[in-house]
Design brief:
8% helix; mainly beta; single chain; five-stranded antiparallel sheet; Beta-galactosidase, Chain A, domain 5
């Protein structure tokens, strides 16, 4: 997912999302196997291998394996399904499976996105707000234009920061849980603590992204997104 846009009332293409931005974007994983810390970034291809890729009407399905060692033996498989077609809604499913012979410990999934609401002309006045009550991450500017992101399960942690400030490492693996930032150039990060995975076990995170020109419309689109999950994502 590198670009998401919305046609406004004047028929103009309004850029909502351009991703990945710089060195960090998309999904990341951290985990331990045999007491070794592993970090898997969707923006690099040294340790990821494409197992399978399929496309359909509005749908992209990709299966990736991650090999933390140079021997090429995979430890996890990530199955990603993305759907968006004729609606200002995008559906994403992350399924992470332990394909190793050992327990995968302390697995964490991250999603980093730089929405650049309104495109290059106005991204520097974006504001991000996270609502702890319903797990809603909202990014907007004064156009008006809004992008919302929700997930099941809700994220364990989150962060709103300038794009170059979103960082994770073995020493600092957790996002900062700030509730708002802006107006400025902001990106957002969400974190799910998936815990331990026994060999053959999987964990799933579902995400709905919706865009609109009012908060009321956004709130109406999100339930539609969850209904579409039952029809479009299998």
């Amino acid at each position: 997912m590198k670009r998401l846009s919305l046609i406004d009332s004047r028929g103009k293409d309004r850029l909502l999302l351009r991703n990945p931005a710089g060195y960090k974007g998309g999904f990341w994983l951290t985990y331990y196997v045999d007491e070794m810390f592993c970090m898997a970034a969707s923006t690099e291809n040294d340790s990821f291998s494409v197992v399978n890729e399929e496309t359909g009407k509005g749908m992209l399905e990709v299966s990736l394996s991650h090999s933390p060692m140079l021997d090429g033996v995979p430890a996890i498989r990530t199955d990603i399904q993305v759907w968006s077609h004729n609606k200002p809604i995008m559906l994403i499913r992350h399924k992470t499976t332990n394909v190793a012979e050992q327990i995968i410990k302390n697995m964490k999934l991250y999603e980093f996105m730089d929405f650049d609401v309104g495109g290059p002309a106005s991204y520097k006045d974006d504001k991000g707000v996270y609502d702890q009550n319903n797990g809603l991450m909202l990014v907007y500017d004064g156009n008006p234009l809004l992008v919302a992101l929700v997930s099941l399960p809700q994220p364990d942690r989150w962060e709103i920061a300038p794009p170059t400030k979103l960082k994770i490492s073995e020493e600092y693996p957790d996002l900062q849980n700030n509730l708002e930032l802006g107006p400025m150039d902001v990106a957002i990060g969400l974190q799910w603590n998936l815990g331990n995975l026994n060999p053959g076990n999987s964990s799933i995170v579902d995400i709905v992204i919706a865009s609109a020109t009012s908060l009321e419309e956004i709130k109406a689109l999100i339930p539609d997104g969850w209904k579409l999950f039952n029809k479009k994502i299998r």
